[in-house]
Amino acid sequence: MGPTSMKDLPTEVLQQMLSWIHPRHVLPLRRLSRRFQALVVTRHFATINLNRFVAVSELGTDALVSPTSDEESNVPSPETSIVCLRDPVSKTPTWFDEAFFHWPLPYQIVYADRYLKHLHTLDWDASDAYLDAPLPAVAMARLSGLARLNLNDCGLIGGIPVDVTSVSLINLTCLSLYDNDLEGPIPSELSNLSNLTELYLGRNRLTGNIPPSLGQLTQLVMLNLGPNQLEGTIPGELGNLVNLKELFLGKNRLTGSIPVELFKLTSILDLFLHGNMLSGSIPKEVGQLISARCVYFEENMLKGLKNLNTLDLSSNDLTGEIPPEVCELRSLQNLFLCDNRLSGRLPIALCTQMPQLKTLYLSKNQFDGTIPKEVNQLCSLTNLWLNGNAFGGSIPHEIGDLKNLIYLSLANNELTGTVPRDILRLEKLRRCDISGNIRLLCSFEFPVMQI
After folding, report:
1. E strands in 193-299
2. Which of 61, 89, 230, 294 is most buried, with most CB under 10 Å away?
3. Residue 376 phi, psi (nearest 5)
């Protein structure tokens, strides 16, 4: 007499029977009994089961398919999902791809080894998938060809597993887990990913300190760690990231002073430290950020830029007007904004609120309007370079009050009228260039003047 129930079937027969059930339905069966659990959750069974629903052609085109297909539908059901894995870039996940994040470990490993091995880029966001699952790092660590892993706003939960930092992922250049629900510390082992150029971990609930070992990722161009709930001080080792263009540490709970090492990052364009609990003074070395476009320190407990004496933002592609915040840098002695595309009128506050200013370079921009008469309040000024703009009107006679002026360049503007004789009162003046103003007249001779 044959067997009367499934529990009496030989293991091999039962295994073959169950392997023909789609993974979506067969995996819940493991809860029925310990025998099912032991049979289903194995790499051997996962291999057989997935092979029933994943066809790998002899020509090398890998495709996830089900035994049946619905050609009438534009939206694949779980049983009819198809994805071509010959393309090394995954931008649209299938049901199998999403299930990969929820499967037991044996299924994840088999799926990664057999069907994700050619993956170069995995790039999803909320419009593609909301996973509500941890990162299957053990299985993903087997994807040695993966170069870009972007899972922004995909509903990832749990912590950042150490396995994702495996040296087997040495080819990874971009790791972006931005805007998920990750928590816990940032693994110091991330420093193993030595080829990373982009690391985005912001907009999560990460806690703990910023690992100093991140300073070993010297290829980094972008580092985003906020908003999160990170605490402690900013490690000075981040100053070793000499290729960094953007550093976002804003909206955390960081404390202590800003390390001077950050201002060695001369390639940085955007520096965001706002919304923390940083204290002390901003180091005077901030003037070394010669390439910076945006520097945000607000919403901290800093004493302000009271030590800042030089701000050099020249030779960038800055546009718009000079922001009023610049005019609040009352201790500034040297301001370099030349060779940009700044426009608008020269702020009067620049003349009235910066009494210690000695050098003002605004040449080669697109400023217009007249030169304000309040320029005479810059009583410490030794260098005034306004050449290469579109200033119009007459030269204010108050310019003769700048007793310490040594160099004056108003060349290549649209100035009109006559040069005021008050310039003759500038006894320290060594050079005065007013050339290139075709409607400007001079009725006197001045040895250092270039017309």
Report:
1. 198-200, 205-209, 222-224, 229-231, 246-248, 255-256, 270-272, 277-280, 294-296
2. 230
3. -70, -10
pLDDT, average across residues 204-220: 97
> What does the buried/exposed string (b/e) look like for 112-135 if buried means 16 or more CB atoms within 10 Å of the residue's CB?
bebbbeebebbbbbeebbebebeb
- Short-list 64, 81, 63, CA closest to 73: 81
The band of 31, judged by pLDDT with boundaries at 50, 70 and 90, is confident
Residues 6+ apart with CB under 8 A from 445: none
Q: Which H or E run includes 334?
A: strand 334-336
Q: Calculate mean pLDDT across residues 29-44.
A: 85
Closest by CA position to 252, among listed 223, 279, 228: 228
The dihedrals phi and psi of 223, each to the nearest 5 degrees, come to -135, 115
Q: What per-residue confidence (pLDDT) applies to 184?
A: 97
Query: 416 - beta bridge partners?
Result: 439
Indicate whether this model's pTM tops 0.85. Answer: no
Contact assessment for residue 259 and residue 281, using Cβ atoms and an 8 Å cutoff: no
State phi, psi for 90 to the nearest 5 degrees: -110, 110
pLDDT at 448: 66
Please, is 294 exposed, middle or buried when counting C-beta atoms within 10 Å of its C-beta (0-12, 13-18, 19+)?
A: exposed
Query: Which two three-digit tokens encode residue 172?
Result: 């990874």
Report in angstroms the alpha-carbon separations of 167 from 141, 171, 190, 237, 286.
8, 9, 10, 22, 36
Q: CA 172, CA 96: separation in Å to the nearest integer?
A: 23
Q: Are 285 and 261 in contact (CB under 8 A)?
A: no
State the amino acid at position 435 in one-letter form: S
The region of weakest confidence among 68-77, 123-132, 291-300 is 68-77
pLDDT tens for each residue of 146-166:
999 999 999 999 999 988 888
Question: How many whole angstroms separate alpha carbon 182 and alpha carbon 205?
Answer: 6
Nearest one of 126, 124, 122 to 112, comparing CA atoms: 122
- Any idea which residue has 């059901």 for tokens? 77
DSSP, collapsed to helix, strand or coil, labels residue 384 as strand
Q: What is the DSSP string of 214-238?
A: GGG-TT-SEEE--SSEEESPPPGGG
Average pLDDT value for residue range 424-439: 93
